[in-house]
Amino acid sequence: MSDPLLKLAGVWKTYDAGDVAVHALRGIDLEVERGEYLAVMGPSGSGKSTLMHILGCLDTPTKGTYRLAGEEVAELSRGRLAELRNRFIGFVFQAFNLLPRASLQRNVELPLLYGGVGGDERRARSREILARVGLGDRGRSLPSQLSGGQRQRAAVARALVTGPALLLADEPTGNLDQGTGGEVMELFDELNRAGQTVILVTHDPMVARHAKRIVRIVDGLVEGGERAAA
Amino acid sequence: MAVADGFAEVRAHAGRTALQTLGVVLGVGSVIGTMGLTAGGRAQSLKFYAESGGVLKCMVWSKPLENVRTSAREKASLGLTMDDVAAVRASVPGFDLVEPTVERYLPVRTARLTRNESVSGVAPRYQELHELLVERGRFIGDDDIATRSAVCVLGATRAREYFGSDDPVGRTIRLGDTMYGVVGVLKYREFYWNKAETYNSLEWMNELILVPVTALQVRQVGAGSKSIDEISMRLADRKAAKEAVPAVKRLLLARHGAEDFQVYARIDRLQQMDQQGKVYDLTFMICGLISLIVSIIVNANILLASFTERMREVGVRKALGAKGWHIAVQFMCEMLVVTGIGAVLGLAVGIGFVHGIAALLGQTAALTPAMLVVSVVAAAVVGLVAGFYPAVRGARLDPVVALRYE
Questions:
Q1: B376 part of a folded domain
Q2: Of A226, A228, B203, B322, which has the maximum CB count within 10 A?
């Protein structure tokens, strides 16, 4: 493949904590190809959350470069970053983060609304994607009427509805029991088999095992980039 | 979508919304209530005027001089005369009717009773000018004036007193020393300013005893006398009032050399009332404004207090691609939904108040388009001002910080 989907080179992230500068990331180099299934692992405080924020265009590096789909992210305005998140990235959170007062249908439509997609197309696409994650008949339900596994699948549907290049999941099974967590992981596996680029951010080896490549972050640096057995 | 989100928020926090809307409800309610009362009073006046000759009616009455010592010039004044009528007709444009009235207190004798009554000598146009309605027979005509004929027209109350349930037309009554033939009876008229009022403001019409002005002059005042007691006038249109009414004053003052008369124009009275109404409106407008300012402060406060609980939601929306303005619009819309509900309730409260008072006093409830404007503007201003700071804060919120917020 000519150009990787995303490429970080010498990325630093430094926070000011009073007088002391805290280096959350200290020179990360990382490339992810289209269609990859990657797990970013590391203990808490390792900088993996900061890395996820940068990968997800929620934050920009203090130093270094980050190219996503051919675009240099570090220099962009907040508005442009929002557009990039909307077009290229689908987030799945540990706590699902569905809007509690909106139906599943409306939750799933939300990224399309922010992307400026018209009403009819919004409804059609969100219905289609809900059906794909097995919630085709629950569009009118509120998140509180669903089980945890169903909620996370709805969140995956919301992440996928814009057809993002990258699905970015932060501890996606953290709030689920083992059984339903397994079902959600199978959903990710299936999506990746269909060609979806997936990055999992986790500390759980059982989750990371699903990925085809594991990157460990320790003290703000990439420890190893070994290929997992296919 | 943002408006629907606003309604969802309102449903989720009914109690908080009730508090938030309270200021707007009270502010809008008080302003609309006052506007309704002043408008209702105005409508009632107009109704009264319409029943008795319209807003264009003007009167000139004789008035005794106030100072005890009068100058020779003042003593020389004859009071209102037929010549005054002719002068006004000739030199003051803007009136389409100028009619003299002579009044005398005369012993009235009928088969049933004898009593002193006020008898008015009038001209045919007097009927039109005061909007008198003839129930039976006819009014005084031009021929009666020319021939000084001894005919009279009775108000409804007088007719009943003198003739009971009999038809008075064709009968005679004695006014002073002269027998007058009754040619017409006026329709019974009534107007009460409100339900509690027992005074019929149109009762004077029912108590009229009208004869041709010439007949009264020749028989009771003395032939050759030009003295009259009042002049009734009607303006050609509203625009004429500004010039014509002061012109009458100036003319009469020049002719009499003393202010032994009084000019009254309904249209001036109406303008005075409108001025007073404006003062009331303004006073309550300021009260309403204070409620609205308090409401702005309360709403901004509540929105900011609820802000922390909304931070995560803002973070999620931003992660999904919401730009700053999406968040700002959403917060603004939520605020406008709340104040909009407040304005609708305030409008209902105000209108309810106006109808309640109107029903209590038996008046007409007047509703004006300005009320709708007031409530819409109040809702928009409170919503936009109170929502502005929280909206800007939401728009600027760093998504990483917002998402991390537990």
A1: yes
A2: B322
